[in-house]
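Write out structure tokens for LysM domain GPI-anchored protein.
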Amino acid sequence: MSGGNKMVTVWLITVAVVLVASVGITVTEAQPEANFKCLTENATCRSLTDYTSTNSTTLKEIATLFGVKHFLDLLGANNLPSNTNNSYKVNPNQVIKVPFPCKCSNRTGTSNHVPRYKIVPGDTLDAIARVRFAGLVKYQQIQTANKIPDANNITAGATIWIPLPCSCDPVDGTSVMHYAHIVPMGSSIQSIAQQYAISQQTLLSLNDLDDPKNLLAGQLLDVPLPVCNSSIKSDSLDFPLLVPNATYFYTAHECVKCKCDSTGDNKNLQCEASNLKPINNWSVCPSLKCSGSVLLGNTTSTDSCSRRVCDYTGYTSSRNISTTLATQNTCAVAPSGSGDSGSGASRSMLNGWVLNKLLILIHFLILFVYLL
């Protein structure tokens, strides 16, 4: 190769390297390992996670994959009509919220021994983590949770536990439902905070983010969803009854339907008789009334900022559902979550795209020099 050509090639390589440095990129994974803090030892609760499939699927297949025991739980988490068929089609990359039980141990929250996945021929732990469970966990986490000595040596037919990240901790002294949210491209800490009515600082602190611009598309973010106020007793079998806004939940063996609709002034959980046949070992649902003949969910009196309502307070294993006449505050509370946070995930994804293109360019230039 002539001296002139060599100088041009070296100059091109230098320019490419400078461009990589100028965009301020560090080579990081698009989906860092998620470990949700859970400081309340042995606490249990319900949590949510996003799930997207690269292929078309159905709600039944998703419920089976994640071990969702009651199909109505999946419908309620996505605010779908309770008569939705389990063959409901889910399009590729459509986000479905999946409910699951969470347990806290050793300052970390994980799904309480669900989902259980049966290994099929050709599976690898990495493919199970990245493809089957959409990157919600890393293969190393599956390996550790199941005490698998060699990640490259798994047995078809064996059943393994997929430890999804979660938490049961209150946030700022308030009960919440922790939601493992897959950060979409183009979103930011500001937009996520506004969407879910929480503060940006809470999101940053909870996820150990020093700078909102460090948010990555594809990252699993711990989003503490505000829940409706309830009168649930601490000794009830469904305590804590956490129902986020725009969702519903069937409880007390599906005898009671509770929904949270806090778009207006009412931030209280609204429970009523489900009119469904009870599940498990209950043959019929007990009477759902307060003192006198006030039915569950009915209001007896109202004024400008409160109302008296027959409210659900819990159930026991002895086929008993308890209620009380409760005074509920109905005045509006201003939502939190304003302020500027920068470009966040959109910038991170753009930087990753630029990095990939520049690295490819460098490789081609080096190959060009070698061939000459």
